[in-house]
Design brief:
Blueprint lengths: L39 E10 L10 E10 L41
Antiparallel strand pairs: 1-2
C-alpha cells in the first residue's frame, strides 16, 4: 500500500552529435521573396516582426495562408533531427486554424 519511486538515472541508448542547421532561413529573419528565398511558398506568406513572446527563435514569425517547403541535402545512413514550432496567434479573430507538418524523404515511411 504505497508508491514506489524509481530514482535510478536513465541510461542513454544513443548520443547524437548534431551538426549545423541544414535549413536556410529557419526563423524567417530574411525576406521570403521568390528571387532570394530558399523557401518554396504556395499561397501567401510574410515574415512578421514580433515581440519576444511570439517567437521561438529570432525576431520574426511566419504568417502563412498556404504552405511552405524547402529541400535539404542529406546523406544516406546519416541521422537527422527535424523540429517544428507552430502556434496560432490568440488575438486573431480566425475561428479555425490548421497546423500540420509533413516530412518526405527517400526511404522514410513514418
Amino acid at each position: 500500500n504505497g508508491i514506489t519511486v524509481d530514482s535510478t538515472p536513465p541510461v542513454p541508448v544513443e548520443k547524437m552529435n548534431l551538426g549545423p542547421n541544414l535549413v536556410h532561413n529557419p526563423s524567417f529573419e530574411q525576406t521570403l521573396s521568390s528571387a532570394s528565398s530558399e523557401w518554396n511558398v504556395t499561397g501567401t506568406a510574410r515574415a512578421v516582426e514580433a515581440s519576444v513572446f511570439a517567437t521561438k527563435d529570432g525576431q520574426k514569425y511566419l504568417h502563412l495562408h498556404g504552405s511552405i517547403s524547402q529541400t535539404v541535402q542529406t546523406q544516406p545512413g546519416q541521422k537527422y533531427r527535424i523540429t517544428f514550432h507552430t502556434r496560432h496567434i490568440e488575438t486573431m479573430s480566425v475561428p479555425l486554424q490548421s497546423q500540420e507538418g509533413k516530412v518526405m524523404a527517400p526511404g522514410l515511411h513514418k
